[in-house]
């Protein structure tokens, strides 16, 4: 018992209360066999002196363990590990408890579960402070949070209709406003009944292959392309077929000749992720003709089409579809802020009920209050004004990055397409170790992402035309920070020569 007492390490300044820390240590010792059934624990007075804590701390920990059945207490006899607990034949380290999933006799994952686990690392989420060149991040300094907070507070003052379950398809007034907005801004042909609000576009990208494809079915994906769309396909046991992109976007002829059996196409035609080109009209029409002939679905991910800096936003692929093959997926993370977690899909009529049932199974419905606040935000004109202001601001920030590429970094990097979006793809002018550049940039406080991140070379065979490089985000930082970041990146590249 003295060995156990010596092993207990309590942290007085931690967020977890001391009695909770002691409770967890004793519980873990019982579960790992360090404290066997029937063993007597020290009296509370002795225990508190040994640990240099108050007696009440020990009493509270004992009380919780007694209530949960780990301990038994008898007047005059003391406190014991419950004798009916199964004995553990092997004592394990108390300081580093192993997760249950790592135990030799623990149940394993299903084959489907293993595929989900394998794709966990294929999408990267930022949770720290924004640094220069972070990709796909809107400028939070441009968002009218005071207005949003006022609208939300107004909704909560009348909360009776917000505490129960809601429509699985989403808040009806919001869907009606989205239908009008999408028709006006993107040419999307739809009505509110075809729209399902999702918990971010990522939920839509998970639901669609789950419902539309069987294991072994084939799907085209752009190469390089968005890992957040590829991961759900892999998890659904779909044959992922990489189709290269060029200056005109997805190479439809390549896909048709190499993967004629595909049943789904994932594409970002308005602003290809990550290279930034816009899919030409000829390619769009060719893709729609192929999809109609093959009876294949097309997922159009229109993730940041609001931000086009040379002319008006282009009409959507869905607006050209005459056969009901295109599913339009959108997100509000890039326009408003990622933490909102609101996206949507516009479905052909035949898919509405099946997808609605799938959505209901996954999470019943997306949070209703954010939908209501967004409805007010749109109805009162704040949404349109925010897009107009942020488009102007991001155009200025993109111009600052283009200037830095033309001056500071002209001997090191060349720029790809720059019509719109929140990021710019660049290629090295000389042979570089892409990962070494990324790591050195991070060490210097510069957030870089290699284009190989979108190529997924460990999962997909690479088409011959892939070129390494970087994706540089510009929308979330100021023009001054962009100039400083460019100077820092130049220093990183020179250091790696």
Any descriptors?
3 domains, 4-stranded antiparallel sheet, alpha/beta, 8-stranded mixed sheet, 497 residues, Aspartate Aminotransferase, domain 1, globular, 16 helices, Arc Repressor Mutant, subunit A, Aspartate Aminotransferase, domain 2
User: What fraction strand?
Assistant: 5-15%
Please identify, by name, the CATH architecture of the largest domain: 3-Layer(aba) Sandwich
- Backbone structural class: alpha/beta
User: What is the CATH third-level topology name of the largest domain?
Assistant: Aspartate Aminotransferase, domain 2
The arrangement of helices and strands along the chain is HHHHEEHHHEHEHEEHEHEEEHHHEEHEEH
**Could you say which overall geometry the principal axes of the C-alpha atoms support?**
globular
Name the CATH superfamily classification of the largest domain: Type I PLP-dependent aspartate aminotransferase-like (Major domain)
Discrete helix count: 16
CA-CA gap between termini: 60 Å
- The total strand number stands at 14
CATH class term of the largest domain:
Alpha Beta
Strand order of the largest sheet: 3-10-9-8-7-4-5-6
Largest sheet: 8 strands, mixed
Average pLDDT confidence is 88
């Amino acid at each position: 018992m003295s060995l156990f007492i010596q092993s207990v390490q309590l942290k007085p300044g931690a967020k977890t209360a001391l009695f909770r820390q002691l409770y967890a240590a004793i519980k873990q010792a019982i579960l790992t066999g360090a404290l066997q059934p029937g063993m007597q624990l020290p009296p509370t007075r002795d225990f508190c002196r040994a640990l240099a804590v108050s007696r009440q701390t020990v009493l509270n920990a004992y009380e919780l363990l007694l209530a949960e059945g780990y301990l038994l207490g008898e007047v005059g006899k003391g406190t014991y590990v419950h004798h009916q607990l199964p004995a553990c034949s092997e004592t394990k380290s108390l300081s580093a408890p192993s997760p249950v999933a790592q135990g030799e006799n623990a149940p394993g994952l299903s084959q489907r579960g293993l595929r989900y686990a394998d794709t966990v690392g294929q999408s990267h989420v930022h949770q720290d402070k924004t640094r220069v060149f972070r990709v796909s991040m809107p400028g939070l300094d441009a968002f009218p949070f005071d207005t949003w907070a006022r609208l939300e507070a107004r909704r909560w003052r009348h909360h009776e209709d917000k505490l129960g379950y809601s429509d699985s398809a989403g808040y009806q007034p919001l869907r009606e406003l989205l239908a009008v907005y999408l028709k006006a801004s993107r040419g999307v042909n739809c009505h509110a009944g075809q729209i399902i609000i999702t918990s971010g576009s990522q939920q839509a990208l998970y639901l669609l292959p789950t419902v539309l494809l069987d294991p072994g079915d084939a799907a085209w994906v752009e190469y390089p392309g968005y890992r957040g769309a590829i991961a759900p396909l892999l998890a659904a046991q779909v044959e992922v077929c990489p189709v290269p992109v060029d200056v005109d976007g997805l190479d439809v002829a390549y896909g048709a000749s190499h993967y004629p059996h595909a049943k789904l196409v994932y594409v970002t035609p308005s602003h290809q992720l990550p290279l930034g080109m816009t899919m030409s009209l000829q390619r769009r029409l060719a893709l729609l003709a192929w999809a109609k002939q093959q009876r294949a679905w097309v997922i159009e991910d229109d993730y940041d089409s609001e931000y086009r800096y040379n002319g008006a936003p282009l009409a959507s692929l869905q607006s050209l579809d005459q056969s009901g093959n295109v599913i339009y997926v959108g997100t509000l993370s890039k326009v408003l802020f990622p933490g909102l977690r609101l996206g949507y899909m516009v479905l052909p009529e035949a898919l509405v009920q099946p997808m609605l049932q799938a959505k209901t199974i996954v999470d019943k419905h997306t949070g209703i209050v954010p939908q209501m606040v967004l409805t007010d935000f749109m109805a009162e004109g704040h949404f349109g004004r925010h897009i107009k202001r942020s488009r102007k601001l991001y155009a200025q920030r993109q111009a600052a990055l283009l200037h830095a590429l033309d001056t500071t970094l002209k001997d090191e990097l060349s720029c790809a397409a720059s019509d719109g979006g929140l990021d710019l793809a660049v290629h090295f002018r000389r042979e570089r170790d892409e990962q070494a550049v990324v790591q050195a940039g991070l060490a210097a406080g510069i957030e870089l992402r290699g284009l190989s991140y979108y190529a997924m070379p460990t999962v997909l065979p690479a088409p011959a035309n892939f070129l390494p490089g970087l994706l540089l985000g510009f929308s979330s930082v100021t023009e001054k920070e962009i100039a400083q970041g460019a100077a820092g990146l130049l220093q990183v590249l020179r250091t790696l020569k």
